[in-house]
Amino acid sequence: MSAGDTQPTRPLPAWSLQTAPPARRRRRVWPWLLALLVVAGLAVVAWFVGEAVARDLVTRTVREQVITTLALPPDQQIDVEVAGAVLPQLIRGTLDDLSISSDDVTIGPLTGDIAVDVQGVPIRGNADLAAGSGTVTLDAAQLQGLLSGLENVPDGAELALDAPDVRLSTSFPVFGVEVPVTVAVVPSAVAGDLALTPSAVSVAGAELTADGVRDQFGGLADGVLRTWTVCIAGDLPAGITLTDLVVEGDRLRGSFAIDPAIVRDASLQQNGTCA
Q1: From 24-28, 49-53, 249-253, the region with the lowest mean pLDDT
Q2: What ranges do the domains of the chain cover?
């Protein structure tokens, strides 16, 4: 037996016996991400559902208020638009921008297409509007209907809208012959009333001055040379005032100012008066 055979056996060093550490278990993240996406999606759906309900509530309420205030037919078609998201505005208590429009609206003797824009509309508290304005648009037939009840408007007179004037065509009997007369009148708003003031006269195609017409036709001319005034204040809330009239193409457009206090002052919501 050699010396190598008698050498005692030694154990292997500890470092050679170490095993690899167990693999760390990875956490499954995607279920949490999926849950977050589902919650976010539900929140978005809830927002849009709530937004739709809020918008419908606001538009229906505004429509009902307009019909009640102006005594319109219950089935009057009224378009209401609220700019921007409604829910944040309801939370703040103010509607930023509200538009209301309707065609063929009849208020007293006046029939026309009406559009109103108001800003800063308070929905609670005792505050005023930030601003408000409106327009009414009439065609020739609607204007003629408005003037038909006025005194001194010649029977059978026909109206035409020819920017920048309103033209009234009628005739005068002279020695048994009907002489055609056309009067150009300028529309304007005077103290909240609609006014039509003669600016030019054509008799049988010849341009004449107002004095020349009076010289030829005497008192017969007074019916077409006067300023016609139509008071509409008695049929509108006192907080709404006619401020301007202009002929645009074949339409007459009137502009209205809205008193910001109309939303809280009951007296401004009642019809005004005619002088």
Answers
A1: 24-28
A2: 46-138+234-269, 142-230
- Its pTM stands at 0.75
Could you tell me the two tokens for 16? Answer: 């050679």
Burial of 89 (0-12, 13-18, 19+ CB in 10 A): buried
Place of tokens 């033209």: 167
Which of 237, 212, 239 lies closest to 225 in space, CA to CA? 212
Q: Which residues partner with 209 through β-bridges?
A: none
Return the sign of the alpha-carbon dihedral for residues 221, 222, 227, 230. negative
Q: Quick check: 168 and 185 in contact, CB under 8 A?
A: yes
- Of 239, 154, 158, the C-alpha closest to 192 is 239
CA atoms within 13 A on the CB side of 270: 4
User: Coil, strand or helix: which one is 193?
Assistant: strand
d(CA 224, CA 226): 6
| Residue that is written with structure tokens 């016996």 in the block | 17
